[in-house]
Amino acid sequence: TSLSRGNNAVQGTNDSSIVSKCSMAGRGYFQDPYLQHFVAKTRRRAPLINRGYYVRAKAVDHMLRCFITHTGANSQVISLGAGFDSAYFRLKAEGLLQDTLWFEVDFLETMKRKAALINNSQVLLDVLQLGQSQMGSEGQGHKQTENMEANIVLDCSDFKMVGVDLRDTGHLERCLKMTGVDLTLPTLLLSECVMTYIEPKSSSAIIQWAANTFTNAVFVTYEQILPNDPFGMVIGIHTYPDADSQEKRYRELGWSSVHSMNMNHFYTNILDLEERRRVDTLEPFDEYEEWHLKCCHYLVLCAYRGSCSALSQDMMG
Ligand code: SAM
Asked: Which GO terms describe its molecular function (predicted)?
């Protein structure tokens, strides 16, 4: 079908993401002992790449933490196009996810590969089991369901992995409901470097579906803007020219308020001086001009609805 065309290339973007994340964590930019369990062969990336992945990790982490600490009990995170991202494990091990349900969505093959890695790692299984009575995709406590059970790759009490194509929002919603999603709870929907791989018509449908489906929500998007990439990095096929047009797009698709900031702003205004100094000591680095230019090309956007609108001041600093 037309939906499956190009899926392999798009899924491959996850492998490159996770290797780069692992590289920057390995250099001490960002603390995440769980990333390495998702990477077969680690590689060392250039300092400019490490910095790019560092600022991305910090920006997304900042939004997740703001959301979790503010909403407190009973909230949900839905990571759309989650790939092999390890945020759930990192935050759970820190004790931050006491009352948070975490859903991950990606293509079925990607979710299956991720589940296999989790099942083969005692470190990851231990985190998954923290404070849980139920466990495992095949083990005890796994909820058997009639329909779509093939799409529910992992169904633990607080961590669900769903293998569906995001472009089929109806199917996505049915699968999420099957794993116990609550459409009224405060919900953070995350798309970290995902929307750019989806045709604008379909990504708009996803953004609109989320606005129409979740009463109290924040949609966090980390993405590249401006179509020209002067560094020859792998770029997505569908980028928006600037922050304003992205913000306008989310507003038109049903979100009540929308704010965004580029990574220069995030780095200088949200991260403190001490942290920036620490980063400067990690590797020899002198490509500051390239770094600032690159940071201008990435933004984190938050779109709010209902009770989550109150989060905007915290999230945007
Ligand atoms: N969000 C993760 C991260 O930042 O580490 C992964 C980012 S990776 C660049 C893009 C991910 O989006 C891939 O895992 C890919 O499979 C997923 N993706 C892209 N289009 C998708 C679609 N239509 N349905 C489900 N997943 C999709």
From this structure: tRNA methyltransferase activity
